[in-house]
Known about the structure:
The chain is α+β, with helices and mostly antiparallel strands.
Amino acid sequence: xxxxxxxxxxxxxxxxxxxxxxxxxxxxxxxxxxxxxxxxxxxxxxxxxxxxxxxxxxxxxxxxxxxxxxxxxxxxxxxxxxxxxxxxxxxxxxxxxxxxxxxxxxx
Length: 107
């Protein structure tokens, strides 16, 4: 699924990394899976998983259009948006938007 997300976000004009970013750009995107649970069962067997991902947008400036691009890209890849939160990281003076998505995958 990480490959699917990397591909979905590949057209963004910023670095995209799984979990952490150690580069030098001021604007970048990270993502990770934060939950994976049974989504559907048949005959007492799990046949589908519900997988939850968080995509984080980090920037020292206005990231509004980038957040919109992330929403569109993830929706196009088959993810449903769950919620979003906005933060300001005081220690690094960085704006941070956390977007959470869910998708169902066969087991």
